[in-house]
């Protein structure tokens, strides 16, 4: 990793530091995944090995559930796929380990055959990861034990396990240092381990962003980086106000951020904008609504696992009505629930409804997020696809150009490729098959803010 070094960051532990200057858009380094797993929902759409999305993938002849670009990808993945192949045949529909369990099983298998450092561990090895076991509450400890039980249940014939204590450490390490890979719309594709990328510390004012080219992570500058500067990324979604961001950091990563953004809280007022009323609202009324917003966000997160789309849509509509009595539409809690509502609309193929929510979201998104935000770019992409599908070509072109401008502003050296526009679902009708070409990144994109975080939007596809 030329131009970079591992060092002890004051108050933060290990970190990554620049040994030379990097300009905006410049690639600092790339890191292939130590190992990765494609999410089960994307099987058949993406290659299990390289995560490429394409039609006509070849199916594994034994389990019939894994798909590959070609023989080369299948052979490359076999040492790890064989952990699951026979088990899927035996368990059938009862085969349901979590992605964390699947990823951990692959780590154990690869560590057994790769005794030396891999190309993914040039400056930090998996064994050096922090596990933070001493900081876990009883609920998190119980979840780890459940994962260990699932690992034994589904993989007992293929893995030589270390003792329970070592497995606790490994699951703790994966929970704190795992990443999710997402596509250009920030829909979840899978989970991975990128040891060298995990070395970077967090800031709510990051100077780099992480993108994925298949299963290779690429770290690029989004600010000018001078010699001696520490390299910072963001572990979390930067949309939310300071208190919420730090609650998330404490819960998942066991620290509080002391960056400039958290110290000044200068964006919090806009992010928590109150509706303009004839009678000013009391401080207590605003606090009560913030508490309600946080509760309904958590309620919705849980409800997605067991409620129907209709029920989820009702939660969104009722909560937006209540939140809107106090908050302006640009308030981040309103935006959060609009985003969920848009996801439900996409899932049930209510394209007009999805477009209405997206149109409300995009302007405040552009204000609250940094100029280089992939969240903003992915929203423009969603809007572009919806406009095109609803036969509003001029608006679609404008939206897609807006998406492109986000990347050209901050990621100047990123390559672009012309791809056919993928229209949503049933909107791929003959009248729209004029093969419109739009510019999309030539690889999948994801914020490190979604590090080990499965996104909140229902996958529309």
UniProtKB/TrEMBL annotation:
<dbReference type="InterPro" id="IPR011990">
    <property type="entry name" value="TPR-like_helical_dom_sf"/>
</dbReference>
<feature type="domain" description="SET">
    <location>
        <begin position="2"/>
        <end position="236"/>
    </location>
</feature>
<protein>
    <recommendedName>
        <fullName>[histone H3]-lysine(4) N-trimethyltransferase</fullName>
        <ecNumber>2.1.1.354</ecNumber>
    </recommendedName>
</protein>
<keyword id="KW-0156">Chromatin regulator</keyword>
<dbReference type="InterPro" id="IPR001214">
    <property type="entry name" value="SET_dom"/>
</dbReference>
<keyword id="KW-0805">Transcription regulation</keyword>
<dbReference type="InterPro" id="IPR050869">
    <property type="entry name" value="H3K4_H4K5_MeTrfase"/>
</dbReference>
<dbReference type="GO" id="GO:0005829">
    <property type="term" value="C:cytosol"/>
</dbReference>
<keyword id="KW-0539">Nucleus</keyword>
<keyword id="KW-0862">Zinc</keyword>
<feature type="domain" description="MYND-type">
    <location>
        <begin position="47"/>
        <end position="85"/>
    </location>
</feature>
<dbReference type="GO" id="GO:0005634">
    <property type="term" value="C:nucleus"/>
</dbReference>
<dbReference type="InterPro" id="IPR044419">
    <property type="entry name" value="SMYD2_SET"/>
</dbReference>
<dbReference type="GO" id="GO:0008270">
    <property type="term" value="F:zinc ion binding"/>
</dbReference>
<dbReference type="InterPro" id="IPR002893">
    <property type="entry name" value="Znf_MYND"/>
</dbReference>
<dbReference type="InterPro" id="IPR046341">
    <property type="entry name" value="SET_dom_sf"/>
</dbReference>
<dbReference type="Pfam" id="PF00856">
    <property type="entry name" value="SET"/>
</dbReference>
<keyword id="KW-0808">Transferase</keyword>
<comment type="function">
    <text>Protein-lysine N-methyltransferase that methylates both histones and non-histone proteins, including p53/TP53 and RB1. Specifically trimethylates histone H3 'Lys-4' (H3K4me3) in vivo. The activity requires interaction with HSP90alpha. Shows even higher methyltransferase activity on p53/TP53. Monomethylates 'Lys-370' of p53/TP53, leading to decreased DNA-binding activity and subsequent transcriptional regulation activity of p53/TP53. Monomethylates RB1 at 'Lys-860'.</text>
</comment>
<keyword id="KW-0963">Cytoplasm</keyword>
<keyword id="KW-0489">Methyltransferase</keyword>
<keyword id="KW-0479">Metal-binding</keyword>
<dbReference type="GO" id="GO:0140999">
    <property type="term" value="F:histone H3K4 trimethyltransferase activity"/>
</dbReference>
<dbReference type="Pfam" id="PF01753">
    <property type="entry name" value="zf-MYND"/>
</dbReference>
<keyword id="KW-0949">S-adenosyl-L-methionine</keyword>
<dbReference type="GO" id="GO:0032259">
    <property type="term" value="P:methylation"/>
</dbReference>
<keyword id="KW-0804">Transcription</keyword>
<keyword id="KW-0863">Zinc-finger</keyword>
């Amino acid at each position: 990793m030329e131009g970079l070094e591992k060092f002890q960051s004051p108050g933060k532990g290990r970190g990554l530091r620049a040994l030379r200057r990097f300009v905006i858009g410049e690639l600092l380094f790339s890191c292939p995944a130590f190992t990765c797993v494609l999410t089960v929902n994307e099987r058949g759409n993406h290659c299990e090995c390289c995560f490429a999305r394409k039609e006509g993938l070849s199916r594994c002849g034994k389990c019939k559930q894994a798909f590959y670009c070609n023989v080369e990808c299948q052979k490359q993945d076999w040492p790890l796929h064989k952990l699951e192949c026979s088990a899927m045949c035996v368990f059938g529909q009862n085969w349901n380990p979590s992605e964390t369990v699947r990823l951990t099983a692959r780590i154990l298998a690869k560590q057994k055959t790769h005794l030396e450092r891999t190309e993914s561990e040039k400056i930090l090895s998996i064994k050096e990861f922090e596990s933070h076991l001493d900081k876990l509450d009883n609920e998190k400890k119980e979840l780890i034990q459940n994962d260990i039980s699932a690992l034994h249940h589904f993989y007992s014939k293929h893995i030589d396990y270390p003792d329970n204590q070592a497995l606790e450490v490994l699951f703790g390490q994966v929970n704190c240092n795992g990443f999710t890979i997402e596509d250009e719309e920030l829909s979840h594709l899978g989970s991975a381990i990128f040891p060298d990328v995990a070395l970077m510390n967090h800031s709510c004012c990051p100077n780099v962003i992480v993108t994925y080219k298949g299963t290779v992570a690429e770290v690029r500058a989004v600010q000018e980086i001078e010699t001696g500067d520490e390299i910072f990324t963001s572990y979390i979604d930067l949309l939310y106000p300071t208190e919420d961001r730090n609650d998330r950091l404490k819960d998942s990563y066991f620290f509080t951020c002391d960056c400039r953004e958290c110290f000044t809280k200068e964006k919090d007022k806009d992010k928590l904008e109150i509706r303009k009323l004839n009678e000013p609202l009391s401080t207590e009324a605003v606090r009560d609504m913030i508490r309600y917003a946080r509760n309904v966000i958590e309620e919705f997160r849980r409800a997605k696992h067991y409620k129907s789309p209709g029920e989820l849509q009702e939660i969104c509509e009722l909560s937006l009505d209540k939140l809107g009595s106090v908050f302006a539409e640009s308030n981040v809690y309103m935006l959060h629930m609009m985003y969920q509502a848009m996801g439900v609309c996409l899932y049930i193929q209510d394209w007009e409804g999805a477009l209405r929510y997206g149109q409300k979201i995009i302007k405040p998104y552009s204000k609250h997020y940094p100029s280089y935000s992939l969240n903003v770019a992915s929203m423009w992409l969603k809007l572009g696809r919806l406009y095109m599908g609803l036969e509003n070509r001029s608006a679609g072109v404008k939206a897609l150009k807006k998406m492109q401008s986000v990347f050209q502003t901050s990621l100047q050296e990123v390559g672009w490729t012309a791809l056919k526009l993928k229209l949503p679902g049933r909107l791929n009708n003959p009248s729209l098959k004029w093969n419109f070409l739009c510019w999309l990144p030539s690889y999948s994109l994801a914020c490190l803010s979604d590090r080990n975080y499965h996104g909140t939007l229902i996958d529309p596809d």
